Description:
The chain is 35% helix and 21% strand. It has eleven helices and 15 strands.
Amino acid sequence: MATEHLSPLDLAFWRIESAANPMHLGALAVFEAAPQDPGAGPAADAGPGADAAVRAAALLTVRCATVPGLRRRIHDVLLPIGAAAWSSDPDFDPARHVFLLRTPDPQAAAGPLMARPLDRGLPPWEAHVLAGPDPGSFAVLFKFHHALADGLGALALAAMLFDEGAPARGPARTPPAPQPAAATLRSLPGILAARVQDVGQALEIGASVARAGLPLGVPEALTALQVRTGTRAVAGLALDLDDVNRIRKVAGGTVNDVLIALVAGALRRWLVGRGDPVPEGPGPRALIPVSRRRPGGAAKYGNRLSGYLLRLPLAEPDPLLRLDRVRTGMDRNKEAGPARGAGAVALLADHVHPLGHRLGGPLVAQAARLLFDILVTSVPLPSFTFSLGGSRVREVYPLAPLARGHSLAVAVSTYHGTVHYGLVADAAAVPDLGDLAEALRAELDALVREVS
């Protein structure tokens, strides 16, 4: 059977991780209470008096063993030097991945759990069932290492654990057979030509990165986020998608433009509320990840990402003008495309030998602060309703990892007519993360008033 090596970008995410900066994605799914359904399958094994959280944990424990992608772990290989590969865990134990925790505040409990790295000797994922104060109240925090999946891939894996994912569960797929030597020789001219093109693209991206990032050092715009301790705080905020669409229809641009502008306005409001000066100038650099998967294609494991780099116009006091500047900047990025410019730094991973990832991972991680200041990412969710053991998902808050040197990451999804912002921050740098979340609501209200 052919060895399935990690792709260069997946390997980069695996190598840059540290204990203080774990590289896993997260999603906090909040469920509506539902009575126990005797036909819900393995959940009934929890007993007739079991509450919803216990039933959910029982279901996840049984189902995760049937998802091939959740049984895979990462191990180093001899060749090529520095590479790593996937293999099925022969001792896979669901009890080492699915956990049940009773807590009065699931959202508060999610912060310390996001700070804890995944066990690198196991398949890199976890599901924490967070039982709320009453028997019908619970949430599930999913954690997937970025080497395992990007946002779309993590969604596909998590979906297989829900009630709707049963058809996708089953035996592991057979890896593709190695390409015959003759076919490789026949395609050699094309491969060489592609390599020349790749080198040119790498040089162009590298030059853009240097121009946009390295000379700037640590910008004054986010000096309020300089404390970094490795602790984590999480906050979630739900906003009405109809309000976002109303703004978009009047002001122009896309829904994503409005969602990014809300982040810019919230940061400005948060700084003012703290008594911190709002700096003049072009503003902090937001990295906006862009999926390179084909529209309508199945989300597979691993990462297919590029990105845009966008200046957040914090110095602009007018909400509509802030939105206009965000829209203009995003239009400029889209015109250039996701394969060029400083935001496409993820594509440089494809041009690095595995040994370079292994030896240079810590250096690359240190450089993240020089390349961008804040991550603002969007994870699309399907329109149908997820459920687990009959309990429906009411809210979904995506959670992004914090790169080394960063203290705040923002992720956003829309689900059933609601926009869900998930904020992850260094708990010491942002002890008032709830205030920042509420600043998003205040910015939305301000934009609604402007377009009414």
